[in-house]
Amino acid sequence: MSGRSLTLQLSTPRRVLSFSLESHPPIFLAPLLASNPQSIHQRSSFSTTATLSVRANRKRDGNPHRGESALRRTGLRYPNGMSKQPLPQPVLDPKKRSPIIVDENHGLWGFFNKNRTALSTNKDSDQRGRPWTVEELRHKSWEDLHSLWYKCCIERNRFATEFKERKRLQLGPRVYRPINHDLAIRQTQAKIKHTLTERWYAWQEAWKVAENDPEVNLNAELDTPAYQPSALEDEEEVDEKPQAASGAA
Amino acid sequence: MKPTAALYSRLRRLPLTTKQVSNGFYKGTGTGAMGRHTKHGGYVIEWRKVRTYVVPEQLKDCKLTPFVTMQMRPSKGRFEGDPKGALSGEAYLKRWKIENGID
């Protein structure tokens, strides 16, 4: 600190004291305000020893990246091959960004709802109903039951996806309302299994009955019908079209 | 240390580990094997064990949903006093004669 600034600092407090304290900063800040800002900066180090020169410091390692830091944004010490290329600038305005192209028919859309949103609203989920009953499924064909089973699988996948997403977003109990839709779907699937098991047992029973039935030839050739109605009036009832309802046969 | 009864009951609710039981406990992942191990340390895939998923061809045209509307009451089967109910072979054969009769 130079002698001139010292004298300035010593002389200023008396002047400051004469003013009222309310409109001015406190007294202890007076030397800071009165002195020249540049003069308070330290010009030389306090240490009296000579600074360690680069050549004299033999403990220096040969690390070419010494001092490079991503946190302090120092950049590289030496230019590399990419130095002449301008860095890509992030587009902060979302409107100027190029749109993300997504395949409309991608299979992973099956994990989302119809609106393709991450979460369904409560209104959507309220529109679901009850599980199927066995009696309703007894009148369905094998193909229908097969398709319904896969529809159940898809719906369960959707539900599990949403459940995970709700958990990940940590939505509170007000937003997150656990509904036993998954249980209802699994009940439907159980009913499908029930129906098919019933059909299988009925088919086994029917085979035993047909063995003692004179109208049915179980060892018939492929081109001849297995059912030969004895009475003439029964022939009109025979439907030639194979129905899918007897798919288990 | 022997845990108190309350602590022990808490412990019972945790899944079983291999450390708690003697040998023979196989935890697994709920999935079956796809093959078998050979005596040389290899693994042979047995294609009869590999799962195949047959997706129905008319799945996209299927209009059935996993849920039935709440406005429809759950229906019950009526078998007209048949004690066998849906398992009746006679009823199955009768329907087969009417609807199919070929195969």
UniProtKB/TrEMBL annotation, chain A:
Q: Which residues form the signal peptide?
A: none
What residue spans carry the Polar residues bias annotation?
44-54
> Is Transferase included in the keywords of this UniProt record?
no
Keyword Zinc-finger: yes or no? no
Q: Which GO terms describe its cellular component?
A: mitochondrial large ribosomal subunit
Sequence segments annotated as region (Disordered): 44-94, 220-249
Compartments annotated for it: namely: Mitochondrion
What GO MF terms are annotated? structural constituent of ribosome
Enumerate composition-biased segments (Basic and acidic residues).
Answer: 59-71
Question: Which Gene Ontology BP terms does the record give?
Answer: mitochondrial translation
Q: What is its main location?
A: mitochondrion
UniProt keyword annotations, A-Z: Mitochondrion, Ribonucleoprotein, Ribosomal protein
Give the Pfam families listed for this entry. MRP-L47
Question: Hey, which family's this protein in?
Answer: Belongs to the universal ribosomal protein uL29 family.
The entry's protein name is Large ribosomal subunit protein uL29m
From which organism does this entry originate? Imshaugia aleurites
State the organism's lineage: Eukaryota, Fungi, Dikarya, Ascomycota, Pezizomycotina
From TrEMBL, chain B:
UniProt keyword list: Mitochondrion, Ribonucleoprotein, Ribosomal protein, Transit peptide
**Biological process (GO), any one:** translation
Q: Does the keyword Mitochondrion apply?
A: yes
Localization, per the record, is: Mitochondrion
Question: A Pfam family name for this chain?
Answer: MRP-L27
Show the GO cellular component annotation of the record.
mitochondrial large ribosomal subunit
Q: What are this entry's molecular-function GO terms?
A: structural constituent of ribosome
Q: Which PANTHER family match?
A: LARGE RIBOSOMAL SUBUNIT PROTEIN ML41, MITOCHONDRIAL RIBOSOMAL PROTEIN L41
- Protein name (database record): Mitochondrial ribosomal protein L27
Q: Say which species the protein is native to.
A: Imshaugia aleurites
